[in-house]
Design goal:
By secondary structure, the protein is mostly helical. Strands 3-5-4 form a 3-stranded antiparallel β-sheet, covered by helices on one side. The N and C termini lie far apart (49 Å). It has 4 helices and 5 strands. It has one domain.
């Protein structure tokens, strides 16, 4: 990654304010995601319902929580739930797709490093940044192999039909099994 953990955490807080939480500090190394139906402790629920404003307003930030949609509908999801990272990842993906250079305040720079960390956390089997990076690479490798195999299959079909049209006695009909 090329930066210190403190620099990474600073970038994370500038990219998405919810990532300033002590529970989101890089590198994250926990044994399991907090269950959205559970609690972190007696006073800290994993989910706090808070309906979406029909007029499009965004509710205020809540320390250690991310507001958005999830498995329990709209509300605040604790930063130690995977739903929190799915929400942040979706938000960052939408912003970057629209125009990564012109949105946000000047001090809010969208770091590729932070975007990758958030994505990795959003797909990880547990909140462990090193495991998340490994799982993201495995997922990317699998998708890449799938696409490679599909294009190879298409090439074989094109090759087979192309050769068939060149064969002596070709009648214009190609039969594939």
């Amino acid at each position: 990654m090329g930066t210190t953990d403190a620099e990474t955490n600073d970038k994370m807080a500038r990219t998405a304010p919810e990532l300033a939480s002590v529970y989101a500090k890089y590198p994250l190394r926990k044994e399991y995601w907090l269950d959205v139906n559970g609690k972190l402790d007696e006073n800290t629920p994993a989910f706090i319902p808070y309906k979406k404003d029909p007029h499009g307003g965004t509710p205020p930030l809540k320390k250690d929580y991310v507001w958005g949609p999830g498995s329990r509908t709209w509300g605040y999801y604790h930063i130690l739930t995977r739903e929190a990272y799915v929400t942040i990842n979706g938000r960052l993906s939408n912003i970057v797709m629209i125009d990564c250079c012109c949105l946000g305040t000047p001090e809010q720079k969208f770091s590729d490093e932070v975007i990758q960390i958030v994505y990795n956390r959003s797909i990880a089997s547990k909140p462990d940044d090193f495991l998340a990076m490994k799982e993201a690479l495995e997922l990317a490798r699998g998708i890449s192999n799938m696409h490679y195999n599909q294009t190879q299959d298409m090439q074989l079909v094109y090759l087979a039909t192309g050769l068939a049209t060149q064969a002596p006695g070709f009648t214009g009909e190609v039969k594939l099994k």
